[in-house]
Amino acid sequence: MSAAHLPPAPGDYDTSHSTTVRKYNRTYGLVPPAVESLDVQASRCLKQLERRPQSIDKYLYLSSLRSTNVHLFYRLVSQHIKDMAPLIYTPTVGDGCLQWSHNYVQPEGLYISYSDRGHIASVLHNWPQVNVEITVVTDGSRILGLGDLGINGMGIPVGKLSLYVACAGIRPEATLPLMLDLGTGNKSLREDPLYMGSRREKVSAQEEKEFLDELMVALTEKWPGIVIQFEDFKNPFPALETYGGKYTCFNDDIQGTGAVVLAGIISAVKRTGVPVKDQRAVFFGAGSAGVGVAKQIVEYFMREGLTEDEARRCFWLVDTKGLVTNDRGDKLAEHKIYFSRDDNAGKQYKTLEEVVDHVRPTILMGLSTIGGAFTPDMLTKMGQWNEHPIIFPLSNPSANSECTFEDALKHTNYKALFASGSPFASIEHDGKLETPGQGNNMYVFPGIGLGTILSKATTITQSMIYASATSLSTSLHPSEVSQGWLYPELARIRDVSVIVAMGVIKAAQEAGVDREQSIKSMGNEELEKWVRSKMYDPTTETQRVEEEVQGLTDPSKWGGNRGSHL
Ligand SMILES: NC(=O)C1=CN([C@@H]2O[C@H](COP(=O)(O)OP(=O)(O)OC[C@H]3O[C@@H](n4cnc5c(N)ncnc54)[C@H](OP(=O)(O)O)[C@@H]3O)[C@@H](O)[C@H]2O)C=CC1
Ligand SMILES: CC(=O)C(=O)O
Ligand SMILES: [Mg+2]
């Protein structure tokens, strides 16, 4: 709701507002006269979506709705999250990014270019919102499994923050989608006349580091306590190392993905009945997500009784050169060294197929960006070797998934415990509906952000990330567990985010990084009520604004008729 002296804000054009509110907001006459129920508004939006057969057109319609009628957008998304998430997030956001500069209509976030260095603070001052609590920042250099998309990657911060609002009740105006325009290694983009970023080669790692140093200071000076989520950087390890213990920040691809996959693995490992010491995990992909996930699972295996060395040795990581080994002959990137094998007796395994045959894994994890990499032959063997093979093709968007749900089931005789990064449809088999899990960090990052904001944590500790995973793994209803699900029903995501946020808050308190004194002594029930009371709820927003305006326009409360403009 805008103050009386300000021009109307996007939320003010909501047709659910009463005449009184419209007059107060000065939108009276600017929107059609009918005062509409939330259901009528939603049914119009659903009809508009139905009329658009292509997902990308639905994505564009929803983007424009978010810009012009923000609360209606979030009502629609929250109430239909299962249908809307694939449109505003993966897989459709992948096309949204690929076509970003071609489809551009309206500003949806903040762009800061390399040429702005030295003046980053003044660019931040142009952001129209005063109280920003969270930002998702990317340089666009590894967008999903689609490679370097430069500033076209803006769809990712926009999409992730939309999920923060819809799934965890962060207020829309407290979110900042942030794109760092640091050049792109993508030549075809640089040559595209419609590309809207700087047409320069990507800056060097050192130049990017200096830029990020300035950005981190500027962000926290302008919005003290802001939560900073790093997303889809090609090599995000140095930034996490540098800023992790110093700022309230985390890396979603390393830590958020690690947590969400750990939650699924905890449930899956229990289902297999195979003790953790006998688990053998082949990871296709040894990048930020691969290594991040493997490290989280190492911590779980250690909590289950293995030594660190025993836990580490349960993992075989595969990259473009094959199995990561000490004697492969290339200089290993720093982040791969921890998992590098020394038990290969001088033999190098060049392909995933060779590694799978060599290891005979219980777990096959895909974080490689390579669609279809889990071949029918590999899946068949996984089914032969294991009573319940764990198969997680996690690369996004859908076309980059290492296998489909149908293939994983079909080739393992319907025994696979499955989760993918992007959604797949359920499949009917033998009169039973088989439902795939979605191992996507969207199940944890909203709760990590909410818990961090509410506890006013100064940093995001490893224990907070781990707590997000264990909280998620305990959030399944008994009916979901009995159906063999690894993740809870997406429609319950707001409740799940509350559970995750509470776990994060308690871990922050245990680590002593929290600053919110008023909740320190709260028990579970009281804390849950408090967390819920802090969440933005688009379905009660109309009523909240109504009451606020009533309060402002009621002369007995205010002492004047300031709200009436007619
Ligand atoms: N489900 C989820 O929630 C998430 C999914 N992801 C997905 O995971 C994927 C990877 O992300 P991320 O780890 O950040 O990306 P990175 O670029 O950091 O890592 C990709 C890894 O895959 C390897 N790789 C790429 N191509 C091949 C190939 N042809 N053969 C063998 N290995 C290959 C790379 O090898 P090399 O090191 O030699 O270059 C690298 O180790 C993306 O598709 C992303 O969408 C990411 C985060 C969350
Ligand atoms: C989901 C996500 O963060 C990714 O694919 O990069
Ligand atoms: Mg990501």
UniProtKB/TrEMBL annotation:
Keywords: Metal-binding, Oxidoreductase. It comes from the Eukaryota. (S)-malate binds at residues 142, 396, 440. Coiled coil: none annotated. PROSITE patterns: MALIC_ENZYMES (PS00331). Divalent metal cations. Prefers magnesium or manganese. Residues 254-509 form the Malic enzyme NAD-binding domain. GO terms for biological process: malate metabolic process. Residues 538-566 are annotated as: Disordered. Belongs to the malic enzymes family. This is Malic enzyme. It comes from Letharia columbiana.
